[in-house]
Design goal:
Layout: H1 4-18, E1 34-39, H2 52-69, E2 73-75, H3 85-94, H4 98-114, H5 131-146, E3 150-160, E4 165-167, E5 172-173, E6 176-177, E7 185-194, H6 200-205, H7 214-224, E8 227-237, E9 243-252, E10 263-266, H8 273-276, H9 282-293, H10 297-301, E11 310-317, E12 324-329, E13 341-344, H11 350-359, H12 395-408, E14 412-417, E15 423-424, E16 437-440, E17 444-447, H13 477-480, E18 481-483, E19 490-493, H14 501-504, H15 507-510, H16 523-529, E20 534-537, H17 545-558, E21 571-573, E22 577-583, E23 589-590, E24 595-598, E25 601-604, E26 610-616, H18 628-635, H19 637-646, E27 654-655, H20 658-675, E28 679-680, H21 690-711, H22 715-729, E29 735-736, H23 737-747, H24 752-761, H25 778-781, E30 785-792, E31 795-803, H26 808-817, H27 819-825, E32 830-836, E33 840-845
Parallel strand pairs: 1-2, 1-20, 10-12, 20-21, 22-27, 28-29, 30-33
Antiparallel strand pairs: 3-4, 3-7, 5-6, 7-15, 8-9, 8-11, 8-14, 10-13, 11-12, 16-17, 16-19, 18-19, 22-23, 22-26, 24-25, 25-26, 30-31, 32-33
Bound molecules: ligand ANZ and zinc ion.
Length: about 850
């Protein structure tokens, strides 16, 4: 084994002591020679680093090192997203202060990350839970507050009964808490909410200019969910069926179907319900509303669920044909979207159709349908029928015509709606940034003055959330009771804290100027580095962190404190690293330690059943979690780095296979052995023998490919090419020095410890991190094979591929292999084969 156990700590110590990767805002680098390469910083969990972390981190590290060697000034920082529930849950169980747990975990993470030899500027490390950091998170919150983008409301929100806190929409996955899996309920509590909806259009439109995966952009577009339609005003009828003063407005994307609206539905929370409900229906409506309140939005809008509803007892007048249509109350209409009321067109909307069938409401076809609308809804396009002035038009034209009609008659207008909801921003938990606001009985809500920031998190006795909708901070009277900064009277602090996402909304800005006590980031530093040129992280952040951070960034842009509209110009999602698992015929999975391998086959230890090897997520229960520490210990950090890059393209999911890691370790060993050979200082072109010429060619191709592939983040392909070079070079007893130096430099971003060691072995005294990247000569890269024609009796009958300098025997043999040769000589006598070297093969047959 090559001595990675001594080499790796040696160079880690060197980099640390020499601050090799310290980034300086050096004005001699023009803007186009500066790069900001960012990793999604980790949450320092107790479990430590998993093998997924080094995947993205290695990719950005290779790229950063490559850029430095190509003359760029590179900012490549690392830090910790350190507020969060796990540390708090641990505190509840053990009474240990979350800070203590968090800092212990951070220490462990740092040690693990450093063991991988990443070229971070550690002087810029940040932790979102330290007061010098969250001072500025609070400051940014106050900017939002001053701009009217933070407001207080008593609203029904998603409530996790197990975490005992409110959640943002983004934190609810299919009706369950994204963190603990408990079913989310609705609870009305006082909340601080951020008006992200004010930025919906910009968050949507500016996506177009980002170099991001299409899938992530699509997720953000869907999440923002811009919908263009119309509001239509219906007049509610009085007891005698005559128009009353009351209007009921609906939102529809299909105003063209207005002639097919046979009833209306209002959400159970609609503010007009009491007015709309008749005496006779009062009890039934009340009961229905109570039941609906207990259901989640998901349960209510699930297409598969049978529809429920109740008649309100009143009618509205369809504004285009004067018909009276009943107004129903049903929970498939949500109060939070559009106007909370709809016109129902059962012939052309599936949910309305289901409802109409269940309650015996009329179904009127208004678009020529290819099905019988009494038996099934027709939701596709068609020519309008039964629709007076729309008859004969298709959907698009009919919508336009109806919109004109509505506007002319002042019964409707174009309207835009978004699925995006404002961001419920307060948490009733301890381990987060205190929201810097004060409630004064005289002055109302007053921000904590900026010169009093940070508002530090006080020590508490118990971290247990109260479950009443109040944070544990509410119990600390000495902290809660304060002086109003405006009138100096007695006031109380806001006791809610910020959500996990707050700190990560702007951390990339703090790296630019992490120790600045007078500003969140000096303008000059911001100008120097922003925007982030490359951001690499997991795909799971598509609508949470990545949307929130864009929102805050735009607010800061509007405040004039950042210079770019978007924070992250280019985004790449690394693929998931999976693991193997073993499956029975019944499809049940067997834990790795209950499997035996014999001759490449796998058997269950208990009953000997032959198992199929499958790819699965790493999980504790399957015991297939790969521990990076163990891998580094056994095979070295350089092997782990290079293996993770060699597994496949960065963005695809791929299974861990320790055999592959061992292969890479052998490859590095081969390189080490090469370095033991003498290097030849003199220019040996004069006495070139053929093989060395071939190696020079391979070298030139290797430089070309590794340069291009590294620049394109195609690391696996670059590594393959390095392997080709090493295999060829291994056949030589000595190597030209310039070639070997060039190879060592190319290797260094990938296996930096080995690279530095080999560089030193070549007699260099300093790090190679800023050495010039090798250049290649195009001359040597030229394609050295060509196509040769095969002529038979003067006619072109075939072609074959061969080296440009192929000898006569090779050319003749290859010509005889071609299908054309076989066909046209079949049953004939070959009289002569004439090879014209470098040109063609002539065949004479009789
Ligand atoms: C009449 C109609 C006819 C509709 C038709 C659809 C098809 P998007 O595209 O998602 O914006 N809708 C409006 N507000 C709603 C609410 N609060 N809860 C549930 N459904 C609501 O969807 C807009 C459509 O969803 C609207 O257009 C409305 O039904 C329904 F053939 O109006 B439509
Ligand atoms: Zn006051």
């Amino acid at each position: 084994m090559y001595p990675f156990k001594t080499i790796e700590p040696k160079w880690q110590k060197y980099w640390d002591e020499h601050k090799t990767f310290k980034a300086v805002e050096d004005e001699s680098f023009p803007k186009e020679k500066r790069r900001y390469i960012l990793d999604m910083f980790p949450y320092p969990s107790g479990a430590g680093l998993h093998v997924g972390h080094p995947e993205g981190y290695t990719a950005t590290d290779i790229y950063s090192r490559f850029l430095r060697m190509n003359g760029y000034n590179v900012l490549h920082p690392m830090g910790y997203d350190a507020f969060g529930l796990p540390a708090e849950n641990y505190a509840i169980k053990t009474g240990t202060h979350p800070a203590e747990t968090t800092f212990k975990n951070i220490e462990h993470f740092t040690q693990q990350i450093k063991a991988l030899g990443f070229s971070y500027d550690w002087d810029r490390e940040i932790k979102t839970c330290t007061p010098d950091y969250y001072k500025w998170t609070q400051w940014i919150f106050l900017q939002l507050y001053k701009k009217g983008l933070a407001y207080e409301a008593q609203t029904p929100i998603n409530w996790c009964p197990s975490c005992m806190t409110g959640l943002a929409n983004e934190e609810v996955k299919e009706g369950h808490c994204d963190r603990c899996g408990a079913q989310v309920t609705r609870k009305v509590i006082r909340q601080w909410i951020l008006k992200i909806t004010a930025y919906a259009d910009r968050l949507l439109n500016d996506l177009d200019e980002l170099d991001w995966p299409e899938s992530v952009k699509a997720m953000q577009r869907n999440w923002i969910g811009r919908s263009v339609g119309a509001e239509v005003d219906f007049t509610v009828a009085d007891k005698d069926g005559k128009p009353s003063d009351q209007k009921l407005t609906v939102y529809t994307t299909r105003c063209d179907t207005l002639f097919g609206a046979t009833y209306m539905v209002v959400s159970p929370e609609h503010p007009l319900i009491e007015k709309l409900t008749s005496e006779g229906q009062k009890q039934a409506v009340e009961k229905y509303r109570e039941d609906a309140a207990k259901k989640s939005d998901l349960e209510r809008t699930d297409l598969a669920k049978t529809k429920t509803g109740v008649f309100s007892g009143s009618y509205a007048i369809n504004p285009v044909n004067g018909k009276l249509i009943p107004i129903w109350v049903a929970d498939y209409v949500l109060i939070s979207y559009g106007t909370g009321a709809i016109m129902a067109v059962p012939a052309h909307d599936t949910r309305d159709w289901d409802f109409a069938k269940k309650f015996g409401l009329p179904i009127i076809e208004v678009l020529k349908s290819e099905v019988d609308v009494q038996k099934q809804a027709w939701t596709a396009d068609g020519i309008h029928v039964n629709s007076q002035f729309l008859d004969g038009l298709n959907k698009k034209d009919a919508i336009e015509k109806m919109l004109d009609y509505l506007e002319e008659n002042k019964i409707g207008r174009k309207a835009v709606n978004y699925k995006l909801r404002d961001w419920v921003f307060s948490r009733q938990r301890y381990w987060g940034e205190p929201i810097p606001l004060i409630h004064c009985p005289k002055c109302g809500t007053v921000p904590v003055p900026e010169n009093q920031l940070p508002l530090e998190l006080p020590a508490v006795k118990t971290y247990q959330p109260t479950g009443t909708g109040e944070s544990p901070l509410a119990g600390i009277e000495s902290w809660v009771n304060c002086q109003c900064p405006v009138c100096t009277g007695a006031a109380k602090r806001e006791t809610n804290t910020m959500p996990q996402w707050a700190g990560s909304c702007w951390y990339y800005l703090r790296y630019l100027d992490p120790k600045n006590d007078g500003s969140f980031c000096a303008k000059t530093n911001e100008n120097y580095w922003m925007p982030v040129d490359l951001y690499v992280g997991g795909a799971e952040h598509a609508v949470l962190h990545l949307l929130y951070a864009r929102f805050w960034h735009k607010v800061l842009y509007d405040c004039g404190v950042v210079s770019t509209k978007e924070p992250f110009q280019r985004l790449i999602n690394q693929g998931m690293i999976t693991s193997f698992a073993y499956q029975r015929k019944t499809k049940s999975l067997v834990a790795v330690d209950a499997v035996e391998e014999k001759d490449g086959k796998f058997y269950a230890k208990d009953d000997g059943e032959e198992l199929e090897r499958v790819v699965a997520k790493m999980s504790k229960s399957l015991k297939n979690v790969v521990n990076p520490d163990e891998m580094i210990k056994n095979y070295g950090a350089d092997s782990v780095r290079m293996y993770e890059m060699f597994m496949g393209p960065l963005t695809v999911s791929k299974p861990w296979n320790t055999q592959g890691l061992i292969g890479i370790n052998r490859f590095l060993e081969k390189i080490w052995n090469l370095s033991e050979k003498p290097v030849n200082d003199t220019d040996i072109t004069g006495k070139l023998d053929k093989e060395l010429a071939a190696l020079r060619k391979t070298y030139a191709k290797t430089v070309k490919k590794v340069t291009q592939d590294t620049g394109n983040l195609d690391f696996n392909v670059a590594i393959s090419q390095m392997m080709i070079f090493v295999n060829e070079a291994s056949k030589f007893d000595s190597l030209p020095k310039a070639m070997w130096e060039g190879f060592v430099l190319m290797l260094s971003p990938y296996a930096p410890h080995l690279g530095e060691e080999l560089w030193q072995k070549l007699g260099h005294k300093e790090t190679n991190a800023y050495e010039k990247w090798p250049v290649f000569s195009e001359e040597y890269c030229k394609d050295d094979t060509k196509e040769y024609p095969v002529m038979i009796n003067g006619k072109l009958r075939a072609k074959f591929e061969a080296p440009a300098d192929a000898d006569n025997a090779t050319m003749e043999a290859l010509a005889k292999e071609t299908d054309g040769y076989k066909k046209f000589t079949d049953g004939k006598t070959v009289a002569k084969v004439i090879v014209v070297p470098g040109k063609l093969v002539n065949v004479v047959v009789k």
